[in-house]
Hints:
The complex is a heterodimer of chains A (about 425) and B (about 70). Chain A is an alpha/beta fold. Chain A has helices at about 30-35, 45-50, 65-70, 95-100, 100-115, 130-145, 165-175, 200-215, 215-220, 255, 280-285, 290, 315-325, 335-350, 360-370, 375-390, 395-400, and strands at about 80-85, 120-125, 150-155, 195-200, 230-235, 240-250, 265-270, 275-280, 305.
Amino acid sequence: xxxxxxxxxxxxxxxxxxxxxxxxxxxxxxxxxxxxxxxxxxxxxxxxxxxxxxxxxxxxxxxxxxxxxxxxxxxxxxxxxxxxxxxxxxxxxxxxxxxxxxxxxxxxxxxxxxxxxxxxxxxxxxxxxxxxxxxxxxxxxxxxxxxxxxxxxxxxxxxxxxxxxxxxxxxxxxxxxxxxxxxxxxxxxxxxxxxxxxxxxxxxxxxxxxxxxxxxxxxxxxxxxxxxxxxxxxxxxxxxxxxxxxxxxxxxxxxxxxxxxxxxxxxxxxxxxxxxxxxxxxxxxxxxxxxxxxxxxxxxxxxxxxxxxxxxxxxxxxxxxxxxxxxxxxxxxxxxxxxxxxxxxxxxxxxxxxxxxxxxxxxxxxxxxxxxxxxxxxxxxxxxxxxxxxxxxxxxxxxxxxxxxxxxxxxxxxxxxxxxxxxxxxx
Amino acid sequence: xxxxxxxxxxxxxxxxxxxxxxxxxxxxxxxxxxxxxxxxxxxxxxxxxxxxxxxxxxxxxxxxxxxxxx
Lengths: 427, 70
């Protein structure tokens, strides 16, 4: 749970020079000793965030300052939501951050609220044993210390893959199911209770809390010039271990996954909406969008996962795609019809003697669901499918002949069971 | 300003009327849901586009610069 390099704790009000910046366990006393109270400065924080070049750490990588500006300029009393509903089953960096440094997130929530003119804020997280209690006492301790200006309400997200999607978050807070909505008008104009709403990932808020204190050039001392700063990455290594590390953006995937000592056949970059790469290809690529884009991959929410030799990538992909189909909200025709067919088609392709037209069907269905949903679930699912077909071609050929190269058929990547059966499953 | 036809995919229930009223820009996929051409709509087709928007039984079509009140 710690970063790979052991570096000193930040001194009181000093500018910490190394890593970790975020992942240091602190209760409120330790937090105040290291950082002091939130440096309220109003809307001018947005200018600092522009200079820092902070991007959203929830998956889409959207510039944080553009969202802040859009909400601040909407001209009405705004609402801010800290989104900690990390729904990717294989990812745990937001949960780890909330457990480790809740006050950085809560400082960021306050500072963002002040910057956009919000007096109401929400912290939206999955129910996890103890986490709500821990966040509840953190909020109570802050109230006792008089730190917060905006009222914060804790909200719980249902255990669904799409529960953290921006419009689903807003729908849930508005008392409805956590289902994606058609985003006309966008939530930055009309979100919680009809107010302009800033939905920002909790890690993004924690970075914001530090940028407000130490400034843009401090933030830019790590990372690349195009993608500055550090990020939290969930690293699932070939030996089955999982570690959340805070790393400078641009660190090679091979280093993060220790591919030299823990060899893998393939690496999944960006989670279940992400892209498979061969291990050889991935090893030298940086954890940065500029370097991953030519490979058809993206950082997403910072999940990188190695698939060891002796496991079957095809079997893993079949399970993941079936899960993605089940987790479709079922609201949009193309996704509702396409994803189950794609999931069944991939399962058939993984079995002996698939029918000859199946691959063409899969490619057609992929084209038919892409960019036709209210949210990006079909797009991400298709990205995962296409890279599966591209990377595991040899294995698929073996499967068609009734063979499989795996020596263990135990599932390797986590895929939750359970099918949403009623509206109640989304609340 | 050139207008653009869009569908709200959540509201759309696949009646398919849009493809009959506006075949120049809308075809149906194999499940009966509209696939809308991204090409802009010239003045000559504007009337057909508006008709598709107004007559959609699910009120699922929007024309940019001509959004239906809902």
